[in-house]
C-alpha cells in the first residue's frame, strides 16, 4: 500500500491523510464538493494507485472513481492491516451499536472507535479495538477479519441508498465474510431477521444471544446497570457475551460503573415532577419504539426530516400526548390522529418543549425524534445538545 488515493475529505478522509502521509510513497486526495483542487481524477497519478480509501458517506454507485478500476477500501481495512498483532471486535446492527461498543470498550479496556465518533485512523495504538461499524463502512471492507463480530439487530434503514431490504441485510451480514474458525460471530436469536441466518455461517463459529430463548449460547442475567429499557438489556447481553469470549475480568462490576452515552435515553434532569430524557440518537421509528417502551406517562417530542415509512406502526400506548416539530410534523400528526392520540403541531423543538412542559404536571418528557435532524440541526448531537441546554435552563430557572 505505497500509492494511495483518498476519496472524500470529511472527518474520515482527513484522518486517513494524516495517518498515511508519512508512510506512503504517494497520497493524493479528491473531494467531490471542493473546487479548485490540485489534482483531477483524470490525472495519470490516480490511474497508478494501489488502493483508494473512500469515506463511507460517499455513495459510489455511478461514481467516476469506479472507471479507474482501482481497488477501493475503507479506513477500517487500513487500521486492520497496520495493526496485525491487535485484537479486533466488530459491532454492527441497525440500533444499539454505539452503546454496545462503548460498554464493550469499558469492560475490556480496548479502544472504541469507528462510527462511534472517533475515526478508526485517529485511534491510539491499542492491544485491541472495538469498532462500531455502519453498513456504509461494511460496504468498503475487503480485508477486515474480526476476532469477534456481533450483529445486534436488523430493521429497515438507509433504504434510499440500498434500494431494497435484501441489499441492506446483505451489507450487515458482510461483517463476517472474511472470518474463519478462529473467530466468533454473535447473532441476536430474538431478531426476526437474524434468527433465519444462524445456520448460514459454516465458515466461522456462530454464537447466539437472547432475552427469551433459553437455548441460546448467552442468555440475559439480571445485571445491575445504569441503563434503562429492554433495548439496553440486549446491549448489555451482547457486550457481556463479547467480553466472556475475550475472557475479560470483572464484567459485572464494570457494568455497574458504565454511565451510558449522550443522546441515547440520557437522563437530563428532573424538576416539578417532570423527568427529561434526551434520546436524540433515535433517528428512525425502531429506535423511538424502544424508548417509548422503556418509560410510562410519556410526553413525546418527535420530528425532523422523516425517513421512509415515517412512524407508521409505532405503539404509542405509553404516550400521554405527542408534540411534533420539523418537516415531519404534519405526517406524524396524521398518524397520531388515526390512533386517537392527543398531539400538538409545533414549528420548532423549542415550541414543542414549551408546550410539553405546560402539559406535563408529572411524567416524562422524552425527545425521541424518529427522524434525521438535518432540517433544523447539523446532526443528532447538535439537536440533543440544543434540547439539553433548553431543559437545563428551565430546571435552573424553576429553582430560583
Automatic annotation (TrEMBL):
Main location: cytoplasm
Residues binding ATP: 93-99
Domain Mur ligase C-terminal: 263-367
Localization (cell): Cytoplasm
A Pfam family reported for this protein in Swiss-Prot or TrEMBL: Mur_ligase_M
Top-level taxon in the UniProt lineage: Bacteria
Catalytic activity: UDP-N-acetyl-alpha-D-muramoyl-L-alanine + D-glutamate + ATP = UDP-N-acetyl-alpha-D-muramoyl-L-alanyl-D-glutamate + ADP + phosphate + H(+)
Gene: murD
Annotated family: Belongs to the MurCDEF family.
Gene Ontology MF terms in the entry: ATP binding; UDP-N-acetylmuramoylalanine-D-glutamate ligase activity
Primary role: Cell wall formation. Catalyzes the addition of glutamate to the nucleotide precursor UDP-N-acetylmuramoyl-L-alanine (UMA).
GO annotation, cellular component aspect: cytoplasm
EC numbers, comma separated: 6.3.2.9
Pathway info: Cell wall biogenesis; peptidoglycan biosynthesis
Protein name: UDP-N-acetylmuramoylalanine--D-glutamate ligase
Matches recorded under NCBIfam families: murD
PANTHER family listed in its UniProt record: UDP-N-ACETYLMURAMOYLALANINE--D-GLUTAMATE LIGASE
Gene3D superfamilies: Mur ligase, C-terminal domain, Mur-like, catalytic domain
Classification via HAMAP family: MurD
Organism: Candidatus Phycorickettsia trachydisci
